């Protein structure tokens, strides 16, 4: 008869505190990776008139003479239609990097374009802004910096009356922001944060979506935590962003995606996450998670993952904050409903978007790490078997599934009793056969906890050829200490 000897595993390689330390280190690495995996990009608005699009010709690369000619016609033409047509031709030529370089090399070209941008003729203003937009899409920082004389005017026009023009200015600013620190250095004292904060009051969905894009580009700047995010947190933007994420008939998916990523970048900066928690970020995101789970049950729309990803990341990061406990953050998330909603999303990802499974499992890990109530919900809803079904997806997913199971097991004997043996034993024997060291290591940690809190597990494990499963890894340098400890427990327990 196998029996447990008190404290046998504690002085060896991996006691409960050691397991917790390892998981904390792993979670810190995960958080760092998610901070670094940002979405720096540029967007291009092109809305050519039907007659232009239907001409069947590709816009030509322009030389110096042609650029000068179009600028002269736009500035000095006798008829507005002629001037507008010259800017249209220039704008189409600026779609080519070669024309962009030619343009910025020409002395006075940007001064002329800014003059047209600030003219009192709306159509010329619009076409000049479209030319700037083409320039802003360049991958060369020198092109973005050549647009510096125009930035103050683009900011000024954010308070205008034309929603189309405001949208264009916002996307142009967003493109310029991400390309050059020099542009950001100029925009900050010019008042870009108050200007963006004023735009969030717009009733136009297209403007709000463009605002979210521009703001997300600003938040991804390397200097954002020190120079940008504090002023954003001091404005009304955070409260308004959370309002944009409130579930209900007014929720617009496109707008919500943009502001969810904005919130993600703010949270990752860790400048003042308690402030966001105090504004109700956890409860808002939790309700949005429930809403997303309901939506995936009604539709096959694969676009839902665009919103699910930043929402999951925001919740996961906020749950690591000490302030969650002090402001009752866990109480803002209703245990069983959140766990059930998360598993609906995990099943959706499993079928439609497996690459997002780690995002959902990372949230499940953070929910269960320090919360017996979430672990109880997982058990009472019979979700262990659905969780185990995710093991074959990938090694990354396997490690995260096993980490969640470790979170449950470390809560003590009552939790281990409900875990073991059931479907967990064959699943563990299977993961012990993996070649991936991290998967096997996490399996060993789970076995360690089960042996510690559930002495009967040792005998059942041996009856199922458990020692042979351990022997496969006894020569592996990273695992041999843990394997040896478990072997000794099994043989002497």
TrEMBL record:
What GO annotations for molecular function exist for this entry? Answer: nuclear import signal receptor activity
The alphabetized list of GO BP terms reads: protein import into nucleus
Q: Which SMART domains match?
A: ARM
The record's listing under SUPFAM superfamilies reads: ARM repeat (SSF48371)
Query: Which UniProt keyword terms apply here?
Result: Transport
Lineage, top-rank taxon, reads Eukaryota
Q: Which InterPro entries match?
A: ARM-like, ARM-type_fold, Armadillo, Importin-a_IBB
IBB domain: which residues?
1-52
Q: Which PANTHER family match?
A: TRANSMEMBRANE AND COILED-COIL DOMAIN-CONTAINING PROTEIN 6, TRANSMEMBRANE AND COILED-COIL DOMAIN-CONTAINING PROTEIN 6 TMCO6
**This protein's name:** TMCO6 isoform 1
Q: Which organism is it from?
A: Pan troglodytes (Chimpanzee)
